[in-house]
Amino acid sequence: MIIKRDLGPILQKYLKKYAIILLTGPRQSGKTTLVQSLFPDFLYTNLESLDVRLMAQEDPRGFLAQGKQMVIDEVQKVPELLSYLQTLIDANKHLKFILTGSQNLLLLSKIKQSLAGRVALFRLFPFDLNELEQAGWRKKKLLEQMLWGFYPPIYSQKLKPYKWYLDYIATYLERDVRELVNIRNMRDFSRFLKLTAGRTGQILNLSSLAVEVGVSVNTIKQWLSILEASYIIFFLRPYYRNFNKRIIKSPKLYFYDTGIVTALLGIKNVAELTNHPLKGSIFETFIIAEIKKWFTHHDRNISLYFWQEQNRREIDLLYEDGGKIHAYEIKSTHTFSPKLFSNIEYFESLSRKKIVGQVIFAGDKELKFKHYAFVPWNRIFN
After folding, report:
1. Residue 127: exposed, middle, or buried by beta-carbon count in 10 A (0-12, 13-18, 19+)?
2. What is the CB-side half-sphere exposure of residue 275 using CA atoms within 13 A?
3. What is the pLDDT of residues 293-338, one digit of tens each?
4. Of 83, 41, 51, which Cα lies nearest the Cα of 64?
5. Most CB contacts within 10 A, which of 145, 172, 174, 261?
């Protein structure tokens, strides 16, 4: 069963304008399935296969001459191909290439060197809620959805989420991490992963994390950059405006998928998640990652922020769009209360602008409060 992805029509549109499309994203997010379904007439090649990779390395010109329309999967395996693509595209404007890759750090540095101005860049993450809804796969219960996460194989192959995520994490450790950096003690890195999961939705404190893992701050910085480049985590930067208040300047850390978080934390079922002290932070991660995915899958270049004063007043998520400031508070409650909007009202008074304010909560009934909205977790973009 091929699931329609929101990014699909956008890729088709841009391929008419560009010779090359680069689609990045985490492993198992559905990149290969998407490009094969959108471009069935393209010659498909996968550089994960040793014989294909050897051909690309030993005879790059011959490899690229196989067809006028090609998909090259996991292109970061042979990054030197990008330099040959540049001269090939410049010489023949009718060629079309779809490139995919799962390591942002390596790919983008090569793209900037070789293919600037010739390639359209996109990212595909695991399913978002709307895509699951369209497929009939969205879970009715919030906590169940948080445990299942959004990775396509779990749904298409009807796999057990906890087991799949444990295998995914182990595979990630063995493959991507070893390719990106030489880590002497993988047990330290594994402990680092689990401790990082316990900090999702929190202000990043490098020193504290370094002490707990038992490595240097510089090592923690390097390892976080690996997780970010592999699309495991992302950061929200603080929103800076001069409101004559002292505000937090460190970023907040989030995971792209709560299934990975719960697996790293050893949370196996709904009962364990219900009583877990990090349930609120995991819910916040769930919502912010969902919003980030939705904007990415709709090719919306929106920068997301948080805002927090040193007196602990905060807004979980902020972004500017259409000349308006959108402010979200994320609460794992099922019950409405006007107090839930107090931080949004406070922020609005400081900014002296009318805010598009929403409290996203764990229930299922949408309500209005003043000019704000009380929005269920499964209707963020409905």
Report:
1. buried
2. 4
3. 999 999 999 999 999 987 778 999 999 998 899 999 999 999 999 9
4. 83
5. 261
Instruction: Report if pTM > 0.85.
Output: yes
Cβ atoms of 243 and 313 within 8 Å: the answer is no
Beta carbons of 260 and 197 less than 8 angstroms apart = yes
CATH 3.40.50.300 intervals, the chain: 8-123
Exposure b/e, 74-102, CB count within 10 A at least 16 = b:
bbbbbbebbebbbebbeeeeebbbbbbbb
Instruction: Give start and end residues of each alpha helix (H) in the chain.
Output: 8-15, 31-38, 50-58, 60-64, 81-91, 104-114, 129-135, 142-148, 152-156, 161-172, 178-180, 186-197, 206-213, 217-229, 258-264, 270-274, 279-297, 342-351
Two tokens, residue 344: 């949004």
SS3 label, residue 24: strand
Residue 262 in tokens: 């719960």
Fold exhibited by the domain 136-240+250-279: Arc Repressor Mutant, subunit A (1.10.10)
Top-tier CATH class for 8-123: alpha beta
- Output DSSP code: residue 247: B
Which amino acid is it at 207? Answer: S
d(CA 154, CA 159): 5
Q: Checking phi first, is residue 190 left (phi over 0); if not, alpha (psi -120 to 50) or beta? A: alpha
> Cα–Cα distance between 266 and 268 in angstroms, integer?
6
pLDDT attached to residue 115: 80
Residue range(s) occupied by CATH 1.10.10.10 in the chain? 136-240+250-279
Nearest Cα residue to 362 out of 304, 260, 279: 279
What pLDDT digit, counting tens, does each position of 68-107 carry? 999 999 998 898 898 899 889 988 889 999 999 886 666 6
Opening angle at CA 305, ends 261 and 313, nearest 5: 90
Name beta bridge partners: 138. Answer: none
Q: How many residues appear in the chain?
A: 382
